[in-house]
Amino acid sequence: RQVIGERRRLGYVPSELAMYKRIREEFDAAYEKDFAKIVPGVTRPDDLSTGYEGGLSIRHRFGEGASSSERRGESRRGEEKIQRGDFFLIDHGAEADYDLEGVRDRWKYGNFYEMKIEYGYVLREGETEPPEEVRKLWAKGMTIRRVIENTLKVGQTAAEAFELIKQNLEEVGVVVNDDQEYRDLGPEQTQVAIDLHGLGKGSYPPRVGSLGPYWQHEMTIQLYHHFAMELFIYMPVASMEDGSDHLNLWFHDGAHVTENGVEYLTPPPSEIHLIR
Q1: Residue 57 pairs with which residues in a beta bridge?
Q2: How far is CA 154 from CA 157, 230, 256, 258, in A?
Q3: Running DSSP on this structure, what letter comes out for residue 157?
């Protein structure tokens, strides 16, 4: 009992961290292959999948000929080909508390669950970078993530951490939503919904954010706490041809809280993959 209690206090032992690192390295290799094989007008969403939860989703399309449903990100997975002007994510991995299409039956890492998300943009003819709206949204996402990384510490309760995060985000002009949905707060107001829930072996350790039961918010963040950096970021836009009033980002990447703050076993998404 004493050994188990000590192990739970520490959160994870070195061999477990090595396993999570191995999983994320496998994801990175899968991403390299996925982005390299995208051919505009040829590749379909279902061509990009590890066979677990991975695949292409949350797609926005910029440019001539984009239908309103495409522009809102309502991709019909597996049917429609990836086109120039597409801004999209690919996610790889699985979570302990979900069993999408029998994911856990195919997951080869036992109860070591992990996820990672990367974003891509297919350049239109004559483009060398994504549209201004996408670049602005991405910059906001990186700022939000850095604020959280610099705020979360060992020894905080989840509720304390969440209050500090909200205060620090307010200082950089970002509002925190209680729900994972866009709210009309004005043409310049970027907003984020935060759910830093447990990853790996389950979602029942400390939970930083507005979701989950109160007792998870009262729990103290321990050394090597493994969690999902899950963020739903919304930015209002005024120039979408189909009338959409905002763009969104979803991040869901495994991280740990160490003596030095938030750390990742492999780099989290830091740039948009450009497909020419």
Answers
A1: 89
A2: 9, 19, 10, 7
A3: B
Instruction: Specify whether the CB–CB gap between 20 and 112 falls below 8 A.
Output: yes
CA separation for the pair 118, 249 (Å, rounded)? 11
Q: Are 159 and 217 in contact (CB under 8 A)?
A: yes
What is the residue-level pLDDT of the chain in tens, covering all 276 positions? 233 333 344 456 678 888 889 999 999 998 999 999 999 999 988 887 655 655 677 777 887 555 444 444 444 444 588 999 999 988 888 776 665 566 667 788 877 888 889 999 999 999 999 999 999 999 999 999 999 999 999 999 999 999 999 999 999 999 999 999 999 888 889 999 999 998 866 667 899 999 989 999 999 999 989 899 999 999 998 866 656 788 999 999 999 999 999 999 899 999 999 999
- If DSSP codes are grouped into helix, strand and coil, which group holds residue 63? coil
How far apart, in whole angstroms, are the C-alpha atoms of residue 254 and residue 89? 16
Tokens of 9: 């206090």
Phi, psi of 131 (to 5 degrees): -60, 160
Burial per residue of 6-33, b for 16 or more beta-carbon CB atoms within 10 angstroms, e otherwise: eeeeebbeeebbebbeebbebbeebbee
Following DSSP, what letter does each residue of 3-16 receive, concatenated? HHHHHHHH---HHH
Q: At what angle do helices 158-171 and 132-151 cross, to 10 degrees?
A: 140
Task: Identify which of 35, 23, 22 has the alpha carbon closest to the alpha carbon of residue 118.
Answer: 35
